[in-house]
Design a protein that fits this description.
alpha/beta; eight-stranded mixed beta sheet; four-stranded antiparallel beta sheet; binds iron/sulfur cluster
C-alpha cells in the first residue's frame, strides 16, 4: 500500500537570540491510509511543531512532505489552499480554538462557507446538523455558544468542525490532554468510530505513551527534535528497543498490582538539554543509562532493525 503521508528529513529551525533552535531536526516517517500514527514525547520535543510543519501551518526549514505523492512543500500558496481541505487540525484546548462569540452552528459551518461548499443556506444547515450528529451532539446544540458547553462537548465541536470539509488526514494535537480522564475515552472512541466511517487518517500527538496506546496502529517516539524509534504499537509496547522508549514505558502504571510491584521504573537523570545549537551526537546521551563514549562522538543513524521497526541508537543492531 502506498503511504498517504511521506515525511522526509523534515527540519524546522527557529532563529533565536542565543543561536539556532532546532525544534525538528531531520525526521522521516510514513502514514498509511486509514492508519493512526501516534507521535509521542515530552513537552518541547518538537511533536506539535512536526504536525504544524508537515501541514505547512508553519513553513519548513528543509525536507520533503508528500501527500498522495505530491510534495506539498513545493506547491504555491493557492495550490496549498485547495489542498488544505484534505488536512485539518483538532487542537488541545477546544475553548481557545472556538470563537466565543459564534454559535456552535456558525463555528461548524465556517469552513464550509470559506470554501463555498454549499451556496444554499438550508443545505449547509443540514450538513452542520449531520456533522453534529456524527460527534454525538444534536441540532439543538447548534444555537448555543461554546461557554455553555463542557470541555468534552467543546472538543466534539472541534471534531465536527475539523470534519466539515470531509478531510482525508487530521492532525490531532493533544486532543484529550486538557480533558478529565473520564471524558478522554469518550473522545478517543468518537475518533476511532469516525475513522472507520469516514476512512480518516490521523497523526495523533500526545505527551505520554499510555494515551496513544489504544488509538495508534504505529507509534513514533521523539526526543529533542529527533525521531528515536518507530514501530507498530504492539511491537513498541512489547519490545521497545531504544533506551528512551524503554524509560518512558517503565513509567506507565500497570493495572495488575503484582506486576506493578515487580516492575522497575527507570528514572531518567538530568534535564532535557537545550535544542539551541545542539552538538552532533546522540541527543539522548546526557540522560541515557547505557551511554558510551561513541554516543557523545556521533549521532546514531535512524535505521530499520527489523521489518517496520526503526531505531536511532548506536547499540541497537
Ligand atoms: Fe543511549 Fe548511546 Fe543509544 Fe544514544 S546512542 S540512546 S546514548 S546507547
Amino acid at each position: 500500500m502506498e503511504p498517504l503521508i511521506s515525511a522526509r528529513n523534515i527540519k524546522k529551525y527557529f532563529k533565536v537570540k542565543e543561536g539556532i533552535l532546532k525544534a525538528v531536526d531531520g525526521i522521516s516517517f510514513d502514514i498509511y491510509p486509514g492508519e493512526t500514527f501516534g507521535l509521542v514525547g515530552e513537552s518541547g520535543c518538537g511533536k506539535s511543531t512536526t504536525g504544524r510543519t508537515i501541514t505547512r501551518l508553519i513553513e519548513p526549514t528543509e525536507g520533503e512532505m508528500y501527500f498522495e505523492g505530491e510534495n506539498i512543500f513545493e506547491i504555491s500558496e493557492s495550490e496549498l489552499r485547495k489542498r488544505r481541505r484534505d488536512f485539518q487540525f483538532i487542537f488541545q484546548d477546544p475553548y481557545a480554538s472556538l470563537d466565543p462569540r459564534m454559535t456552535i452552528e456558525e463555528i461548524v459551518a465556517e469552513p464550509l462557507e470559506i470554501y463555498g461548499v454549499y451556496k444554499d443556506a438550508d443545505q449547509r444547515r443540514e450538513e452542520v446538523i449531520e456533522l453534529l450528529n456524527l460527534v454525538g451532539l444534536s441540532e439543538e446544540h447548534g444555537s448555543r455558544f461554546p461557554h455553555e458547553f463542557s470541555g468534552g462537548q467543546r472538543q466534539r465541536v472541534g471534531v465536527a468542525r475539523a470534519l466539515a470539509l470531509r478531510p482525508k488526514f487530521i492532525v490531532c494535537d493533544e486532543p484529550i490532554s486538557a480533558l478529565d480522564v473520564s471524558i478522554q475515552a469518550q473522545v478517543i472512541n468518537i475518533l476511532i468510530d469516525l475513522q472507520d466511517k469516514m476512512n480518516l487518517t490521523y497523526l495523533f500527538i500526545a505527551h505520554d505513551l499510555s494515551m496513544v496506546k489504544y488509538i495508534s496502529d504505529r507509534v513514533g517516539v521523539m526526543y529533542l527534535g529527533n525521531m528515536m524509534e518507530v514501530a507498530k504499537s504492539e511491537e513498541l509496547y512489547s519490545n521497545p528497543l531504544h533506551p528512551y522508549t524503554i524509560a518512558l514505558l517503565s513509567a506507565i502504571p500497570i493495572a495488575d498490582p503484582k506486576v506493578q510491584k515487580e516492575k522497575k521504573r527507570i528514572i531518567l537523570k538530568g534535564e532535557v538539554p537545550s535544542p539551541i545549537d545542539p552538538p552532533d551526537r546522540c541527543p539522548f546521551a546526557d540522560r541515557c543509562p547505557r551511554a558510551e563514549d561513541m554516543c557523545r562522538q556521533s549521532k546514531p543513524e535512524f535505521k530499520e532493525v527489523t521489518q517496520g521497526h526503526f531505531v536511532a541508537c548506536h547499540l541497537v543492531k
